[in-house]
Structures are given as structure tokens and as C-alpha cells.
């Protein structure tokens, strides 16, 4: 998921920096400020591509999780349902 989020961010930044309003240096700024740092993060020893090596692939360790119990909230049956046609709520 991390990879998808980072690549989507790169795409959004590319769209912004290749807009004519960004000027002629927009793509160069994108490469310097966005592409380089994202590739560094993706290929870092703790990044999502850490197990991808030339000629082999090592499975990445699953992240550890901590169990969390959500307390049950009491239901309040006395509150009236809001009127969906009441324009004062808008």
C-alpha cells in the first residue's frame, strides 16, 4: 500500500509541475524534489522494495501489530432521528 500511495503522490505532483503555469523548470523541480526522494524511500533497507534484489526476491517481514479492543458504547435510543428534509441542518 505504501508504494501505491507514494506513486500516486508522484503522479499528482507531476501533473502540477508539468502544468504550463509551473513554468519551464517544473519537470526539473519535480525530478529533484519528488522523484529522487520517493525512489530513495522505496528502495531503502526498510522500504517496501527492501527485499527486491537483482536475481532474487526476499519476502519482507510482516509488520507487528498490537491488539486493541474497542469498548462498546451504549446505544442512545431516546434521541430522535434527524429529519433529512430539515434544511437548517445544511
Q: What shape does the CA trace take?
A: flat
**How confident overall, as mean pLDDT?**
83
Low-confidence stretches: none
- For the termini, the CA-CA separation is 36 Å
How many strand elements? 2
Largest sheet: 2 strands, antiparallel
- Reading side by side through the largest sheet, how are the strands ordered? 1-2
Secondary structure tally, helices = 2
Estimated radius of gyration: 24 Å
Structural class: mainly alpha
Helix content: 25-40%
| Strand-residue proportion | under 5%
**Helix/strand order:** HHEE
Describe the structure in your own words.
The protein has about 90 residues and is mainly α. The protein is about 35% helix and about 5% strand. The two termini are about 35 Å apart. Strand 1 and strand 2 form a beta hairpin. The protein has helices spanning about 1-15, 25-40, and strands at about 50-55, 55. The protein is flat and about 60 Å long. It has 2 helices and 2 strands, in the order H-H-E-E. A two-stranded antiparallel sheet has the order 1-2. The model has no long low-confidence stretch (mean pLDDT about 85). Helix 1 packs antiparallel against helix 2.
Topology:
Blueprint: H1 2-17, H2 26-42, E1 52-53, E2 56-57
Antiparallel strand pairs: 1-2
Describe, in short, the structure shown:
Helices cover 37% and strands 4% of the residues. The chain has 90 residues and is mainly alpha-helical.
Descriptive key words:
single chain; flat; two-stranded antiparallel sheet; 90 residues
Amino acid at each position: 500500500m505504501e508504494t501505491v500511495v507514494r506513486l500516486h503522490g508522484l503522479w499528482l505532483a507531476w501533473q502540477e509541475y508539468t502544468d504550463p503555469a509551473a513554468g519551464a523548470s517544473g519537470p526539473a523541480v519535480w525530478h529533484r524534489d519528488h522523484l529522487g526522494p520517493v525512489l530513495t524511500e522505496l528502495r531503502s533497507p526498510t522500504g517496501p522494495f527492501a527485499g527486491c534484489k537483482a536475481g532474487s526476491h526476499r519476502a519482507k517481514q510482516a509488520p507487528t501489530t498490537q491488539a486493541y479492543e474497542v469498548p462498546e458504547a451504549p446505544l442512545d435510543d431516546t434521541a430522535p432521528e434527524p429529519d433529512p428534509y430539515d434544511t437548517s441542518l445544511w
